[in-house]
Amino acid sequence: MRSTGWRNQLRRVAMTAVGAAALLCLVRPAAAFPDRPITLVVPFAPGGPTDIIARILSLSLSQSLGQQVVVDNRGGAAGNIGMAQVARATPDGHTLLLASTAIAVNPALFKNLTYDSIKDFAPISELTTAPNVLVVHADSGINSIDDLIARAKAEPFNYASPGVGTKSHLTGELLKLRTGIEMVHVPFRGAGPSAQAVLAKQVQLGSVALAAAEAMIQSGQLRALAVTSEKRWFSLPNVPTMIEVGYPGFVSDTFNALLAPAAVPQPILDTLIKESRAAFQKPDALAQARKAGFEIVAGTPEQLSARIKSEILLVRELVAKAGIALQ
Asked: What's the CA gap between 53 and 22, in Å, rounded?
C-alpha cells in the first residue's frame, strides 16, 4: 500500500512538472528582434541619393537595435533587381529595402515585373524627399533654362539620368514634353555616375536627384539651372524652380523610403517603424540629411502607402503622354 501510494505521488509530481514545463514553453517570449545582422538592400549604385540615406539610417538602426545593419547595393534594371530580391526575402525583418520613387515609377514602365509594388512590400516610412535638379558643366555657357532650350534646338543634345525608369529620367522626359526640345537620354547606373558624367562632359545635361549633385553644385563645378520642387529648395536659395521660370505645375521630387517584405510580423514592423522614424529626428542624422540636400519626412506607413499608390497613377499618365515605350 505504501509502495503504491509512493508511486502515485511520484507520478503526480512528474505530471505536475511536465505540465509546468509545457506552460513555460507556451508563455516563453519569442526571440528578440533582431537576433542577427540586418541587410538593408539599396537597389542602386553606391554614392547616389538612396545610398546616402541608407548609410545614415544603417548607422542609427545599428545603434538603436543592437545589431549591425549592412547596406547591400544591388543596382541594375532601374532598381528592379534589388526590389525583387527583397520581395522574395524571408519575411522576418532581417532583410529590408531602402527604395526610391522607382518603386512607384517602375509599374508604369516595365511589362513583366517580378514583384508587385503594393502587394509584395510592407511600408514602414517615407524617410526623406528631395527635388530633382537640372545641371550643366560650369563652363558650358548655359546659364538658364532658356539657354538650355536654345542650345538643344540648335545642335544635337543629350542628357544623363540614373537609369531608365527613374524619377530623374521622367523629369528629363517631362522637360522635353513641356519645352518642345529634343534630347537623347543616356542612362547611367545611379545618380552619382550620372552627375559625374556631366562633370566629365560626357553629356551636356544631367537630370538627377539633388543629393547626388549637391556637393558639385556648391563647389561650382556644376551649374544648377532649376530645381523641380514646388518652392525654392532650402540648400539652393539662388536656384529657381521650374515653376518660376515659366512652367506651371512642373514638380518632380524623389522620395526615399523604408519597406519590408509583405508578410513581416506586425510586432517586428512596429519596432522598425518606431526606430526608423526616430532615426531622422536625431541631431546628427538630421544634419547629415539636410547637408546632402534632403528634407526630412519620417512619415507613417499609411502615408507612404498612399504616396506610392498616387505616384503610380501620376507616372502612368506621364508615360502615356510622353510616349515612353515600356521595357
From this structure: 46
Residues 204 and 264 placed together within one structural domain of the fold: no
Whether 75 and 142 share a structural domain: no
Q: Which of 144, 78, 103, 138 is nearest to 257 (CA)?
A: 103
- Read off the pTM: 0.79
Which residues is 136 bridged to in the sheet?
223
Burial 67-98 (b: 16+ CB within 10 A, else e): bebebbbbbebbbbebbbbbbebebbbbbbbb
Instruction: Tell which residue, 125, 93, 27, has the closest CA to residue 266.
Output: 93
Contact 206, 222 (CB under 8 A): yes
Q: Which residues of the chain have pLDDT under 50?
A: 1-2, 6, 10, 13-14, 17-30
String of DSSP letters for 155-180: S--EEEESSTTSHHHHHHHHHHHHH-
Joined grid coordinates for residue 291 = 547637408
Task: Provide the domain limits for residue 222.
Answer: 131-227
